[in-house]
Every structure is written in structure tokens, then in C-alpha cells.
Amino acid sequence: MSVRIALDNNQPTLYTNLDFISGRAILSLRNHETIAAITVKLEGESRSRLIGDPQLPMGYGVGFHRRREDMTLETELHKVLYRAVTVFPTDDLSHATQGSVYTLPPGQHEFPFRFKLPFNNSCADRQSTFVSIAGLQMQAPGNTDRHVRQTLPPSLHRFEDQAVIRYFLKATVQRPAFYKENFRAVIGPTLEKFMR
Q1: What backbone torsions phi and psi does residue 194 show, to the nearest 5 degrees?
Q2: Phi, psi of 155 (to 5 degrees)
Q3: What distance in Å separates the CA atoms of residue 108 and residue 121, rounded to the nearest whole number?
Q4: Are 176 and 34 in contact (CB under 8 A)?
Q5: Which of 16, 101, 128, 160 is the most exposed place for a label (fewest CB within 10 A)?
Q6: What SS3 class is residue 161?
């Protein structure tokens, strides 16, 4: 079994608010496979780095006379967007059947998706969510920090040493058996260079 994401019309991986992102989650099966759901998520995050001297008061200018070992490195990660859509089972299929798991035949299966990036960020919208693990439903707390609603920033990749804003897609094939791992695919810019 494998899953991948294919974007429509060779869409770029640089985005701004009100852009559309569409494509397909493509599932390839060699055998019959039991699946609970397939979800596609659109996420956005910003990472920034600041180097400074913790002994200096706020607002003090950065000078070249300080030694590098006297400076500290501060990194911040902030989720600015989180959207998820279940592409399988469709609403029609889940209403037509009584089961919560589905067996798909061997072959290639395609599940279309479409997102529109909102005008504003969604970090202020994060509430508690319900997570289902092996049939047990648990409540996971949302982000406890309070954020201000602002315009969603565009992608930024040119200043990787100081700041990165990236948007990426994740597809997850949820398998109902506790001992079977879920399959995932991610598409979008990586932060490997930024994390060094």
C-alpha cells in the first residue's frame, strides 16, 4: 500500500491568502485493504529565529562587537493554518452503509480534494478536538495561547536563516486495526535546512 498527493495543473508550492489548492490523494493497493478513512490536511506554519544577548535591555541595537558565544538563539514555531477534509468515505457512502470500515480492492484509487486558503489566519480558531484511537474517543485540548486574528501571510522561503512561512498538504490513510500503522504522504517545502 502507498499513498501520494498529486496537485492539479502543476500548482506552485508558494501560496497566499485566497489561493485555491486542488489535487488528488492517490492510493495504490496490491491487495484488498480495510480502511477507516482518508483525510487530507492543509497546514501552514511560520518559524522564526532571533539571535540576541539576554543581558541587554529590550530595544538595544545589535552590535558587531559582541562575541558569538554571548548570544542566544531563540526559535519560534507558530501554526497559522489548519484545515482538514475527509475524502473517503464520502458523505453519500457513509450514510448509505452502516459500517465504519471499508474494504477497497487492489488497484489505484483517486480521491479529489480542494482547499481555499482563508483571508485570515486560523490559529485563533483552535478549540479542543476529539481524537479517535482504536475506537476510543478522547478530547484533546486546543491551543491554550490566545492569538490575534490577522491576515494570513504568504509563503516565505528566501530568508531561511531568519524566517520561513510554509504551507503543506498531508494525506493520511487511517487503518482500523490497532497494530497496523497509518500511511501518510506530505507535499510542500521542507524545513530541514532551516532546522540546522
Answers
A1: -70, -30
A2: -60, 145
A3: 35
A4: yes
A5: 128
A6: coil
Tell which residue, 171, 42, 50, has the closest CA to residue 110. 171
If we measure between CA atoms, which residue out of 19, 22, 25 comes closest to residue 39? Answer: 25
Indicate whether 39 pLDDT > 80: yes
Over the stretch 137-168, which tens digit does the pLDDT of each residue have?
Answer: 444 555 545 566 788 888 887 776 788 888 99
Residue 37: closest CA among 174, 190, 179, 181: 174
C-alpha to C-alpha distance for 115 and 92, rounded to whole angstroms? 20
Provide the 3-class DSSP secondary structure of residue 193. helix
Instruction: State which amino acid sits at residue 76.
Output: E
Phi, psi of 107 (to 5 degrees): 130, -170
Q: Are 17 and 119 in contact (CB under 8 A)?
A: yes
Q: Which residues contact 180 (CB under 8 A, 6 or more apart)?
A: none
Does pTM top 0.85 for this prediction? no
Cell digits of residue 194: 532551516
Give tens-digit pLDDT for 180-192: 889 999 988 754 4
Query: Are residues 32 and 106 in contact, defined by beta-carbon separation less than 8 angstroms?
Result: yes
What residue type is assigned to position 15 of the chain? Y
